[in-house]
Write a structure and sequence with these properties.
CATH superfamily of the largest domain: Fumarase/aspartase (Central domain)
Largest sheet: 2 strands, antiparallel
Shape: elongated
CATH architecture of the largest domain: Up-down Bundle
Order of helices and strands: HHHHHHEEHEHEHHEEEHHEHHHHHHH
Number of strands: 8
CATH topology of the largest domain: Fumarase C, Chain A, domain 2
Distance between the termini: 50 Å
Radius of gyration: 31 Å
Helix content: 55-70%
């Protein structure tokens, strides 16, 4: 049998060729930098280097879909080689100097991902900032916070919203660790033990805007741990967002009516005129499942012996896809939060009709009447249950009812007095006491919003600086290639009669 089997082409090469769009721009830049470095080292002759620069610039000028990638010719690197060979003949062979194809694709992959991750950080920062903006607007909007879908304690919508901003910030900060990992250069690593033709690996790293060289050449070719960290951070971010989405989907129902989604984030039923479905929230929840699946799949293909490319072959398609999905999900959630209507009157009605003050009542009995908390808890619980049985709310609690409960539980009244109860029955007064760091009092929420905004500013600034550095480095590589190709063009023109 000569050539690749049809099944290999259709099942394997076709899979890899589908990732050409991911690698195309990075391969062009990586190849240009390699050619320029090898020229500077005196290894590639200048005429051949100029011809390579010309075809690489031509490749860089077209999108991957128009370049001519063909699974019948192999995976993307081999397919590129055939296109270049058809254009400039044997001069294309100089592209292999001191470098296996895996080195070229590893460099290209990192060039792509470091930009993608920075854009994901920016999207995450936008969502955190949007949550902070809405939190400041609603720092005094009272509602009964929930645990297990049951009333817990009086709080504010602002306090609730900031609880989602903090984990997003932490995940964005973890993503910067990934950017630092991606910004390590595998360039000049050669096959396994290094290369006699790349004695100074810092040159190619600097040319491509990498911050450091990956030390061990074998590790440089096969390390994948940073991809796990990336997929894990994206899945963690998705879990934070799906928790918020699930809350909002419940709260947007007619049974709760706490919030309304803007019409642009819903979808009407084609059969039932009264229904508008929270479509955006369903998509967020589904995307979270996909991102968890990407993490699991990435881990599964990494379970292989060392010095195998299995994990990275599949990662070329999977990892950019998961970043794109995470970014799209995050931008969608930011739009939902930004346009969300909070039904404040409904929240207050539900709060006033419930029993979320019970904890504060028990604490008041403990402090005022000298009870241990367990006995105070039982007295408060007995009094609250009696109110519920009578169809009343915690706001109707009186000292007489507390005494009745105390006699049943303790055998004697407590005589706490209605004035002492008043402060722990008013939700606004309860929230006003939560002044410690991270509490629900408006001033504490304002302080958290200030902190979130500062951290967002830092994240955005760092991401933009890195994107600018990456763009500048890659622009310089392209400029060197154009200069080299222009010199060749002028030389050929001078040779013409």
């Amino acid at each position: 049998m000569s050539g690749a089997a049809r099944e290999l082409v259709e099942a394997a090469f076709a899979y890899e060729i589908a990732t050409a769009e991911v690698l195309h721009d990075g391969l062009n830049v990586a190849d240009m930098a390699h050619v320029v470095q090898q020229l500077d080292e005196g290894i590639i002759p200048r005429p051949e280097a100029a011809r390579l620069a010309t075809v690489l610039l031509a490749a860089d000028a077209v999108p991957a879909a128009e370049f001519g990638y063909d699974a019948a010719l192999g995976e993307p690197y081999n397919s590129r080689e055939r296109v270049f060979t058809d254009a400039i003949g044997d001069a294309a062979g100089w592209l292999h100097v001191g470098r296996p194809r895996r080195e070229a694709t590893r460099v290209a992959f990192r060039l792509r991902l470091r930009r993608d991750v920075c854009h994901l950080i920016l999207a995450t920062s936008r969502l955190a900032c949007t949550l902070a903006d809405r939190a400041r607007q609603h720092r005094s909007t009272l509602f009964a916070d929930h645990t297990y879908l049951q009333h817990a304690q009086p709080s504010t919508v602002g306090h609730y919203l900031t609880s989602f901003a903090y984990p997003l910030l932490r995940d964005a900060e973890r993503l910067f660790d990934v950017v630092d990992w991606l910004n390590g250069s595998p360039g000049g690593a050669g096959c396994v033990n290094g290369s006699r033709l790349a004695t100074n690996r810092t040159d190619i790293a600097a040319a491509l805007g990498f911050s450091h060289v990956i030390t061990n050449t074998r590790d440089a070719m096969w390390q994948v741990d940073g991809l796990v960290q990336l997929a894990s951070a994206a899945a963690s971010m998705a879990c934070t967002q799906t928790s918020l989405a699930e809350d909002l989907e419940i709260w947007a129902s007619s049974e709760f009516d706490y919030v309304d989604l803007a019409s642009g984030y819903t979808r009407a039923s084609v059969l039932m005129p009264q229904k508008r479905n929270p479509y955006a929230l369903s998509m967020v929840r589904g995307m979270a499942g996909l991102l968890i699946g990407h993490l699991t799949g990435l881990l599964a293909v990494q379970k292989s012996p060392s010095a195998r490319s299995d994990a990275l072959i599949f990662a070329y398609g999977e990892v950019p896809a998961l970043i794109g999905q995470a970014r799209g999900m995050t931008e969608l959630m930011a739009g939902v939060v930004e346009t969300l209507t909070i039904n404040e009157a409904r929240l207050r009605d539900v709060l006033d009709g419930g029993f979320s003050q019970a904890t504060d009542v028990a604490e008041a009995l403990m402090v005022t009447c000298g009870l241990d908390y367990r006995r105070a808890y039982h007295v408060a619980g007995r009094a609250i249950r009696a109110l519920a049985d009578d169809g009343q709310s915690a706001r109707q609690l009186t000292s007489a009812r507390v005494d009745t409960a105390a006699i049943e539980v303790l055998g004697h009244p407590l005589s706490i007095g209605d004035d002492a109860l008043a402060a722990v029955l008013d939700p606004g007064s309860i929230v006003a006491t939560r002044v410690a760091t991270g509490g629900a009092a408006p001033a504490a929420v304002d302080a958290m919003v200030d902190e979130i905004e500062r951290r967002v500013d830092d994240l955005v600034g760092m991401a933009q600086i890195r994107l600018e550095r990456f763009a500048t480095a890659e622009a310089r590589v392209r400029a060197r290639a154009r200069q080299l190709a222009d010199v060749s063009d002028r030389a050929r023109a001078d040779d013409c009669p």
